[in-house]
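Sequence, structure tokens reproduced for absentees:
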Amino acid sequence: MDLFTNFPLLAALSAIVFAQVIKIPIQLIVTKEFKPGLAFSTGGMPSSHSAAVTALTTGVGILEGVDSVMFAISTVFSVIIMFDASGVRRQAGEQAIVVNQLVKDFQYFMEGAKDWNRKEEYQKRKELKELLGHQPVEVFFGGLSGIAIAFLLYQLY
């Protein structure tokens, strides 16, 4: 199969692009904040991980059939990725919030005892990334997006 005619791959990549780009207007509608950087970040609504793997699995199901070995492999892969997006990665993001707050609290405490804020190495400290994973609803809508995009692209394919 030629790379540029690989329907499941094109569906998955299209779903990633769609999910990442749609985050910008969703954020604008919900919070009235325009954040174009969301297109290149992790987390948020919808989950691009879920969109990608469900588009891939749907594409494989359409071409190979839902009784094929490739569909079974892709389905298990999708379930693992979606579980990870809403579980492990989300928990890592929540832990990052707590650690970042601890660092801020510690720095505030140390300012009273020393000139902590004048030390350059501490001023350049980067915070941990907090938006890593997804809420279950973000995973759900990412999955629906991927399925819809695969079926839509198949009509054009």
Notes: The mean pLDDT is 81.
